[in-house]
Write a structure and sequence with these properties.
The protein is mainly alpha-helical. Helix content is about 55%, strand content about 5%. The chain contains 10 helices and 6 strands. The chain has helices at about 10-35, 40-45, 45-60, 70, 80-105, 110-140, 150-155, 170-190, 195-205, 250-260, and strands spanning about 75-80, 155-160, 240, 260-265, 270, 275-280. Strands 1-2 form a two-stranded antiparallel sheet. It has a two-stranded antiparallel sheet with strand order 3-6. The chain starts with 7 loop residues before the first helix and ends in a 5-residue tail after the last strand.
C-alpha cells in the first residue's frame, strides 16, 4: 500500500465530523437564544449559521491545512494555498447561506424577488446534487476527493501519521449495526401497529361488560362537569353514539377509524359508527 493512500472511510468520516461539529455549535447557539425574546433569533438563523461556519473555518483551515474532522483522523490537505483556501471558504459558506435563507422550507418567501431567487436556487441545487452524486461515484472508484469542491480546487487529503492505522473493534461495529437495525425496525413497524385496537381489546378483557339497553334510545345530557371518557377533557365538538357518555369528535372518530364499532371506555356499551350523532341541547 502506498504511504500516500488515504482510506475512503476516513475521508467520509472527516466530512461527517465537520458537519457534526457545526451541528453542535448550532445546538449551543439555540440554547443561548432561549434567553432572548421569542422570534428574534429565528429571523437571523441563516446569518447565525453562516457566522458559525465562518468561525469554524477560521480556526481550522483558516490557520492551517486541516479541518477539525481531518485533525481528529490525522488527515491534511495537499496543495492548499492561500488563494485556494479563500475560495474554499467562499464556496463552502456562501451557498449554504443562500440555501438557508431562500430555499429552507421553514422560511416562506416574502417578496416576489425572494420567490424568483428561490426558484433559480432550487434549479442550481438540483444540478449541483446531480454533479455531487457523479463525483461520489468517481470517488468510490478512485478513492480521492469525496466532495466536488475538493475536485474543483485540485486539493486532496493525505495522512499525517502513516504509521498509526485506524482500528475499529468488532464489538463496536456489531453494536452499531444492531442499533441501526432496531431503529429501522421501530420506525417502520411502530406506525403499523393498531394501538387503538390493542387498547380496546385490553380494556374489554379486564373490564366488566356494561348493561345493554336493548332497543331503548339513550339521550345523554351534557353539563359543565361532563368530560370525554377517552381524553378526560371537556368534549370538543361533542358526539355520542348510543350510551350516556359524550366524546370529543376526534376521540370518537379515531376509534371508528380503527373499526366500525368499539366498546365505550367508561361503560363498555358497544358503539357503532352508524350511530354517531352530534350532541345538541335539543337532543
Amino acid at each position: 500500500m502506498s504511504p500516500a493512500y488515504v482510506s475512503r472511510i476516513n475521508q467520509l468520516d472527516a466530512l461527517e465530523l465537520d458537519e457534526e461539529i457545526h451541528r453542535i455549535f448550532v445546538a449551543r447557539a439555540r440554547e443561548i437564544s432561549r434567553l432572548f425574546t421569542p422570534g428574534i433569533t429565528e429571523k437571523w438563523t441563516p446569518e447565525i449559521n453562516a457566522a458559525l461556519r465562518s468561525l469554524i473555518f477560521l480556526f481550522s483551515l483558516g490557520t492551517g491545512k486541516s479541518s477539525f474532522g481531518q485533525k481528529l483522523l490525522d488527515l491534511t490537505y495537499v496543495d492548499l494555498t492561500r488563494n485556494k483556501s479563500a475560495l474554499f471558504f467562499l464556496l463552502s459558506v456562501l451557498p449554504k447561506y443562500l440555501e438557508d435563507k431562500y430555499v429552507d422550507p421553514s422560511r416562506i418567501p416574502v417578496t416576489p424577488r425572494d420567490r424568483i431567487i428561490k426558484k433559480y436556487l432550487e434549479k442550481i441545487i438540483n444540478v449541483f446534487s446531480l454533479v455531487s452524486f457523479i463525483n461520489l461515484l468517481v470517488f468510490l472508484n478512485r478513492g480521492t476527493q469525496p466532495i466536488i469542491l475538493e475536485r474543483f480546487l485540485g486539493i486532496s487529503s493525505r495522512n499525517i501519521a502513516t504509521t498509526r492505522p485506524r482500528t475499529i473493534g468488532y464489538s463496536y461495529m456489531t453494536r452499531e449495526l444492531l442499533w441501526h437495525g432496531l431503529m429501522e425496525l421501530f420506525t417502520i413497524g411502530l406506525p403499523m401497529i393498531n394501538f387503538h385496537y390493542l387498547k380496546r381489546c385490553f380494556v374489554s378483557y379486564f373490564s366488566r361488560r356494561g348493561e345493554k339497553d336493548g332497543g331503548v334510545e339513550i339521550i345523554p345530557r351534557m353539563t359543565s362537569q361532563t368530560l370525554c371518557p377517552y381524553c378526560g377533557e371537556t368534549p370538543v365538538l361533542p358526539r355520542h353514539a348510543g350510551c350516556h357518555h359524550i366524546y370529543c369528535y376526534y376521540c370518537m372518530s379515531a376509534h371508528f377509524k380503527v373499526a366500525g364499532s368499539f366498546n365505550c371506555v367508561a361503560c363498555e356499551t358497544e358503539l357503532h359508527s352508524g350511530d354517531m350523532k352530534v350532541y345538541s341541547v335539543s337532543s
